[in-house]
Specification:
The chain is built from 14 helices and 13 strands. With 493 residues, it is of the alpha+beta class. The strands form three sheets. Strands 5, 6, 7, 8, 9, 10, 11 and 13 form an eight-stranded mixed beta sheet that branches. A hairpin with a 2-residue loop joins strand 1 and strand 2.
């Protein structure tokens, strides 16, 4: 049985589970069938189900369906409701076959759920149109379903966790102020000296492996930072290669290809990179005077610095919570390893990326930081999504164990918090969530956060010094293009 939702892919796992449950549980009450059911495991979280419906149950369903039809059936020579049962049955059997199939399928699914508690996460894979009711013998159904992983929760109370921390200093605010002012800085030619950190380089970039060309791009412009990321990998220590470069120079280094590369043979490999420099530019920062302050809505430098300090504090809290979440779930995932079907993970990749980007944006990360982390997520999309789906099942089970539920006031509070962070009205936030069909995603995020709060409430947390992050530049290019004729999604490997 397929639907338009199946073809488009579900927005998230929570919505998929709800829809699958509705398909099974919303059927009208039926008398119990004498089913012969066989269930076999066909892979991680996958089951193949064979069902036989005895001919006696099939005929009974036909009788019940035709009984209602007989009252209004138009049969030549008879008034409505007066035609003989056998004549109505013979005349309309084909017409009611579709309704009989639908009724029997719903009854089978309902009984299957009651007796076996499979906990499906997608709708059963069954084509109702292709199902034929035999003239004699039982009706046979063959279907495949994806089900929730079955595991016992480990002890999630009293975990030992490290919380990275730092004191926001005046130097940090100075750096953030410079970053803020760069939004209003024009690019101007750099006429003297070589490339320095923060400069913009225009160059031809080519990737190759053992003398074989992989991909190349002409006249890319990127900012010189300690790391350069692209859509399927990265170049760590990029500044060491490029500092001092001038127009006309050619520099070479190595890049690390991520696990989402379209060429499976190159995933996790190092490839060579050649950079042919054409041009250098730098930013010219505006004067931090009253005219500039007025143009951005601040009265004084101190007021601007205070706003930037609040932004850094909010970002720090987000980073701390993310670090604690990862540590806690690292511990739990290690204690309850379970496999998931690769196609389930693949379907979730785009949704997972969107959720994480929105979360970073709502907590004050800059566009450059988001682009850098988004590129890292894309380069390792399958592993990141696999991790995210495992977290989903763990936190959902903890929420169920703790009796955690989402109330309307939780959703209202979350929308108001998003509105405060993004300086938008709650009405606009709510309208966007409804328009994009993200209500289920929002509810699931709230549920997961509550479950995580439950873990952290009992955790033994020790503060440790936060590692300093280095700046990252991101480009939209890839190191590798898909091999000719390669059409499958790289992450499905």
């Amino acid at each position: 049985m397929t639907t338009a939702e199946d073809e488009r892919g579900f927005a998230d796992l929570a919505a998929a589970q709800d829809l699958a449950a509705d398909a099974i549980l919303d059927a009208p009450a039926k008398r119990k069938l004498n089913l012969n059911i066989a269930i076999t495991d066909t892979g991680p979280c996958k089951k193949h189900i064979s069902i036989e419906v005895p001919q006696s149950d099939v005929e009974r369903e036909f009788e019940d369906t035709l009984k209602g039809l007989r009252k209004e059936a138009q049969v030549p020579g008879f008034r409505p409701g007066r035609a003989p049962r056998t004549l109505v049955q013979r005349r309309f059997r084909k017409e009611v076959a579709g309704q009989v199939k639908s009724n029997l399928l719903m009854a089978c699914m309902e009984q299957l759920d009651e007796e076996y508690k499979l906990n499906p996460i997608t709708q059963p894979n069954l084509d109702l149109e292709a199902l034929d009711i035999p003239e004699h013998g039982p009706l046979k159904l063959e279907l495949d379903v994806e089900v929730q992983p079955d595991f016992d929760l480990p002890d999630y109370k009293g975990l030992h966790l490290n919380r990275p921390t730092k004191t926001i200093s005046e130097k940090d605010i100075d750096t953030q102020l410079t970053t803020f002012m760069e939004r209003y800085a024009p690019l101007v030619p750099k006429l003297e000296g070589g490339a320095e950190l923060g400069d913009f380089i225009t160059a031809d970039v080519s990737f190759h492996k053992d003398g074989i060309a992989l991909n190349s791009s002409k006249e890319l412009q990127f900012r010189l930072q300690p790391e350069l990321r692209f859509q399927d990998g990265k170049i760590p220590g990029f500044d060491k290669c490029m500092v001092g470069a001038k127009p006309g120079d050619v520099r070479t280094t190595e890049a690390q290809v991520g696990s989402s590369s379209p060429d499976p043979a190159l995933r996790g490999q190092n490839v060579q990179v050649t950079i042919h420099v054409h041009d250098l530019k730098k930013l010219r920062l505006p004067e931090l005077d009253q005219n500039f302050l007025d143009s951005i809505g601040f009265d004084t430098v101190e007021e601007l610095r205070g706003a930037l300090a609040e932004l850094l504090e909010r970002r720090l809290k987000f980073q701390q919570r993310q670090a604690l979440r990862r540590q806690a779930l690292d511990i739990l995932i290690e204690k309850v390893p379970f496999d998931l079907p690769s196609d389930l993970v693949t379907r979730q990749e785009r949704n997972t990326l969107r959720q994480q980007v929105e979360e970073m944006r709502s907590h004050g990360l800059s566009d450059a930081q988001i682009r850098a982390r988004e590129a890292e997520l894309r380069a390792n999309a399958h592993e990141q999504t696999l991790r995210s789906v495992k977290e989903y099942f763990l936190l959902s089970k903890i929420a169920t164990t703790e009796g955690i539920e989402i109330e309307q006031e939780d959703v209202d509070h979350e929308i108001n918090a998003i509105a405060a962070r993004t300086d938008e009205s709650p009405r606009r936030i709510r309208a966007r969530i409804d328009k994009e069909g993200q209500a289920d995603n929002l509810a699931q995020q709230i549920l997961e956060r509550k479950a995580l709060d439950c873990i952290l409430e009992s955790a033994k947390i020790e503060d440790v010094v936060m590692d300093e992050e280095h700046d990252v530049e991101t480009i939209d290019e890839t190191a590798v293009v898909a091999p000719e004729g390669e059409t499958e999604d790289a992450s499905a490997e």
